[in-house]
Amino acid sequence: MGKRYTVPARQGLAVRLKKGEQVRVINTHGTQVVDSWAFNAADPTEFMSMEHMRQGINGIIPKPGDGLMTNKRRPILTFLEDTSPGIHDTIIAACDIWRYRNLGVEGYHDSCTDNLRMALVAIGFPVAEVPSPFNLFMNIPVRPDHSIGWEPTVSKPGDSVTFRAEMDLVYAVSACPQDIVPINGAGLAPVDAHLEVLAEA
Amino acid sequence: MGKRYTVPARQGLAVRLKKGEQVRVINTHGTQVVDSWAFNAADPTEFMSMEHMRQGINGIIPKPGDGLMTNKRRPILTFLEDTSPGIHDTIIAACDIWRYRNLGVEGYHDSCTDNLRMALVAIGFPVAEVPSPFNLFMNIPVRPDHSIGWEPTVSKPGDSVTFRAEMDLVYAVSACPQDIVPINGAGLAPVDAHLEVLAEA
User: Fold this and answer.
1) Cβ neighbours of residue B155 under 8 Å, at least 6 residues apart?
2) What is the spatial distance between Cα B96 and Cα A50, in angstroms, rounded to a whole number?
3) Helix, strand, or coil (residue B17)
4) Inter-chain contact B55–A146, Cβ cutoff 8 Å?
5) pTM recorded for the entire structure
6) A148 in contact with B at a CB cutoff of 8 Å?
7) Which letter does DSSP use for residue A71 in this model?
8) Measured between CA atoms, how close is A129 to chain B, in angstroms?
9) Residues B68, B134: contact at Cβ < 8 Å?
10) Which of A112, B9, B166, B178 is the most buried (most CB within 10 A)?
11) A-B interface: how many C-beta pairs under 8 angstroms?
12) In this predicted model, what pLDDT tens digit does every residue of A143-180 receive, in sequence order?
């Protein structure tokens, strides 16, 4: 509570939130994509679901005021505040070892999928599946011809997004280790982000 | 093989395909949305995944020539042919009882989620989760302001899509029972569709 956590570059972090508490994700350096997930603390098979959320918000990018829906179609988080330009992604899967294999990486490569699993195991909350993440600050334009782009984030240093927990939940993030496709800025350098847990308003 | 199946209005159907076989989904009346899924026959935890597919095809709507990727980032189906105008959906979850509850339905309502589960159980292939479906003929425009629309399908009677199995797999479809939001045509009337299994080309 009131605590500030570092999400180290290329790594993940999970925290438990009580209903009413708030969490803020800070893009400290302004160039970092942060994959995020939320799970019902009482039932890991209920989680924030991008495909259900898009129906709920009638769109592909949530904004302040929106309820972020689970796979049981109820809000698990409310989006309270966004000091960034509001460009986030809900359509792309978390990176994983197969993504990096397809990009030509031969050895191990950190991934948001592995980061989520390790962060959840670290707090004693293992899950069977990795839901599609809410990719904070990720810039994937959908063009009129239905193609997509892979663009650097447009956020500025210190930009943040804030959510309120609508149930007791586990919130997890990963500072995306993607260093081949330039989503984390043209420099291809994953960096730290930060996370704050705030008292009930 | 060579068999034509009816997918009754509001119901589901699952078939097993061998690698190389083809499956064709026919929008017999031209107004019906058909949710579809594919699972690796040897491992139900590997399945066609919209969030991974969108990365693979660099877009939100697959077209002939595209490989439709699993959550392990390899093609499970190849999209061979599309005689429809090419408008399908990959961003919306299958309808479920919570969707109809939120739309004001009080009793039971058929849903693509239940249809998938029942169709898979009927062939002895139960799964733990319901992946986000490939919604054939479903017309969900994504607008420049990131909002989405819920529009009637633009397909014509007899339009079809054809896929080749890239591994032994279970293919499942649901003739969407949505009769409150007009995605199945302005008449709000779910109707039959058909499915054909074709020999290896």
Assistant:
1) B27, B30, B31, B84, B85, B87, B137
2) 15
3) strand
4) no
5) 0.96
6) yes
7) T
8) 9
9) yes
10) A112
11) 78
12) 999 999 999 999 999 999 999 999 999 999 999 999 99
